[in-house]
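Example record

Each entry pairs one chain with its bound ligand, S-adenosylmethionine.
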Amino acid sequence: MPSSNQHTIQKTNGRYYTPSSMVRLILDTAGYQGNAILQKHIIDNSCGDGAFLCEIVHRYCEIALRNGYNIEQLQHDLTHYIHGIEIEPIEYQKCIENLNKIAQSFGVFQAAWDIKNTDALTCQNYSGKMDFVVGNPPYVRVHNLLDYSSVKQFHFAQQGMTDLYIVFYEIGINMLNKTGVLCYINPSSLFNSLAAKLLRKNLIQNQLLKKVIDLKHTQVFNATTYTAIVLLSQEKNNCIEYENYETQKIETLKYSDFYIDGNFYFSTAKNLKQIKHILLTSQRLAELRFRQPERNKINVKNGFATLCDKFFIGDFDFNEYTIPVVKSSTGKMQKCFYPYDKNGKYIPFNELINVPQIKQHYFAHSDKLKARSLENKNIWHIFGRSQGILDTWKNKYAINALIRNLDDIKLTPCPAGVGSYGGLYILTELPFNEIKDILLQQEFVDYVQALGKYKQGGYYTFSSKDLLKYLDYKIMGEQNGQADLFECA
Ligand SMILES: C[S@@+](CC[C@H](N)C(=O)[O-])C[C@H]1O[C@@H](n2cnc3c(N)ncnc32)[C@H](O)[C@@H]1O
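Structure tokens for the complex follow.
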């Protein structure tokens, strides 16, 4: 466990160190290998204790000596072509020591390293000069940043809750010369977060994106961060190589295949055609939905959020104020203490505790109930959130929002009077089998996987909006035919 001080440094400076296998993969992907590296400028602009720079120095020394350099020439090149920036003085110091050790093992004892102990956000020394920019930029969400104003000056940081790694793209791209390449490992939120929208737009408009190695569920760092290796080049690309790190499969994708409505979606080229169709059609349908709400046949919402299932769901010794409830992830029916009337209005506490077992139940759990982060702070005896309550007495189908494959999909009928929790529910009068036939298909799994919302254990999640888009497309878009849809619009 890091100490709280270490933890603060980690949070504010985004310090996660890169394992050497990843460093090698990133340098190879950038093309930093063989004779091509000689007399080429390279920088890690957030170098930490030198995970990348050590491997870079090692490669440089080996190749230079193999090409007949003498120690003096090698010493000159190490100083002249290899660069780094690190904000933390201790990390900077460790980096210098680590680099010295490697250089010394090749007989170089007096390298005057060009490593700067400074803030990369304000350092202008390298603009337009680098052949290679590599690294693992800091991942720090904006609310953890100590100095937010300097971040907000960057163009890529203008939208959403930005993250420092997004700013490091702007810094890195500015450092590239006319033929330069950049290769970073960073969170895969780059594919779909609002904060990275301007970055994605820039990568596509300037035809910079060349390759993506999607690490998918493989967690390189000791954190719940999912990452990808991204290669940019100044050579004007219009397609990319997309590598699935888990299956090692490589697809060539045109920009227009995977850049859909401002986000990146990855799958096979064939799947992406269908996914693009789903996303663009459902976008038109959403407009229609807004203008003609009476045509809506379906909605998707989040199930109950009691914020204390232990109190509200279980095998109670009373039946008053209870309803059956479906756990979306298992489809199992349980008993739910439901302190609401048929209109969704909560029952006053004093009325509920007229039942002695209910009074006893509240008494045993009142501390936990009051400690919840409540939607309505003054009313502690009901569910933590009101979601789902107004639909209890409507027909619906519960569905889990966490799947790996087809077998994981759990769709369960929830007739009027039955609640659902721990997932989503589909609100519709359409027959259960119709919805089941739509969702229990590999096509739906492909769609969910392409959304790229990774969860631990190989799972993917999807939101109520994601599911609604899919169902809208299937029910209104695909079945009615595009012509009809757009005539109505
Ligand atoms: C994710 S770590 C990566 C370290 C190293 N490159 C590696 O891969 O092991 C990010 C590093 O960026 C440094 N850092 C954070 N903000 C910085 C800034 N504004 N300028 C320069 N370095 C910064 C942190 O101190 C940390 O060492």
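The pocket of S-adenosylmethionine is lined by residues 13-18, 44, 46-48, 51-52, 85-88, 91, 119-121, 135-136, 138 (CB under 6 Å).
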